[in-house]
Amino acid sequence: xxxxxxxxxxxxxxxxxxxxxxxxxxxxxxxxxxxxxxxxxxxxxxxxxxxxxxxxxxxxxxxxxxxxxxxxxxxxxxxxxxxxxxxxxxxxxxxxxxxxxxxxxxxxxxxxxxxxxxxxxxxxxxxxxxxxxxxxxxxxxxxxxxxxxxxxxxxxxxxxxxxxxxxxxxxxxxxxxxxxxxxxxxxxxxxxxxxxxxxxxxxxxxxxxxxxxxxxxxxxxxxxxxxxxxxxxxxxxxxxxxxxxxxxxxxxxxxxxxxxxxxxxxxxxxxxxxxxxxxxxxxxxxxxxxxxxxxxxxxxxxxxxxxxxxxxxxxxxxxxxxxxxxxxxxxxxxxxxxxxxxxxxxxxxxxxxxxxxxxxxxxxxxxxxxxxxxxxxxxxxxxxx
Length: 385
What we know:
single chain, 385 residues, alpha/beta, seven-stranded mixed sheet, six-stranded parallel sheet, 11 helices
């Protein structure tokens, strides 16, 4: 089968690989129909994630048709077309029982923090991902959800990560009616977080980034006030100034470790790798939220330490909430929002690229070319329309 193949930082290509096989009675094999490239895939692509091994197939956002099931799979049948959450969850452990499917204790048993994730290095379990024609899906009775009749496949594939992560970012913010919410990052997740903030009752939504085309998109899609931090001398001072000198009620870090905007953090976090990525957006979030406010983090950072102003967290009485999205828990509510027209995920998709051209797709997305917001890979055997 054809699959994306990682060859080292900034080098991926489409290669023929062996077909995946059922390795456990609870497995399923899925024929991929859509697979996105995520902003966090770029962390792998840029060589920022430890233990990303040559030969791995990335891809944690995908839909597909079940072509084979293990002997103990009861909830799926061959022919089912499913949304596959990016979390791999057993559904039985202490954390899955609490709805913390992103923290499954069994799917990545060698780690103490994150659970298993498709195609996200051996720090997340070493599972091959869905940027391929076929993929093995462990715990098939737990994660995959049948795509509702009539749902657009392009909407469905964004329910695997982008929509739930943006939604959970707003949810973790504890937004109260009339709150001012600042979202750092106008990538797909940040844009979706801005959109979802309104669903929780926000009275004002502000998005900060430095890419004008993405800010233009966020302005329309959010809708949101947008500001380019390159044109602001001090983003924290600016945000205080436009929020009655108090600061925002809620700040969302939707950037993570590849943030721009601070020479110090870029040097320490991305050049020298002395931090787990550049924590620039997190600094801005902590320092521009009001006293007693909430900082919600969905941007991805590595497992090692970061320099953060923890004294300001304590002295301002800030609540920090963070996690990988619990896709399985959120899916029923998010499907309702899509079907009711309150969220239009497919509007984020700017590029559909054949799987054979995966190298070009990564380059376009990484270099922010051609107005790219969200690229989707489609195997050539699947109807792209």
